[in-house]
């Protein structure tokens, strides 16, 4: 699990951070999360960096992204940049 993002707290903001968790099967996880009452922010989607992800908001207002690696590809293929 990694902290995927954060923002400064404010009265308008719900959650001030989001987490990313690796799962074995994003599609099954998305279905289970929805049945369990999570609000689906984004459905299971394939991304050019070869990850399949979905995002939810739990009943406490916390933001979660669940990710499954589809293929191991060189970041140059999808425009990734390596920083030293």
TL;DR?
With 84 residues, the protein is an alpha+beta fold.
Structural Rg: 14 Å
Listing every helix as H and every strand as E from the N terminus to the C terminus, the arrangement reads: EEHEEEH
Strand order of the largest sheet: 1-2-5-4-3
DSSP strand tally: 5
Instruction: Briefly note the CATH topology name of the domain at 16-73.
Output: Signal recognition particle alu RNA binding heterodimer, srp9/1
Strand pairing plus helix content: what structural class? alpha+beta
Mean of pLDDT = 83
The end-to-end span amounts to 23 Å
What does this 3D model show about the protein?
The chain is of the alpha+beta class and 84 residues long. It has a domain at 16-73: Signal recognition particle alu RNA binding heterodimer, srp9/1. The chain is built from 2 helices and 5 strands.
Task: Set out the fold topology.
Blueprint: E1 2-6, E2 17-22, H1 26-35, E3 39-46, E4 51-57, E5 63-69, H2 75-78
Parallel strand pairs: 2-5
Antiparallel strand pairs: 1-2, 3-4, 4-5
Keywords:
84 residues, alpha+beta, Signal recognition particle alu RNA binding heterodimer, srp9/1, five-stranded mixed β-sheet, 2 helices
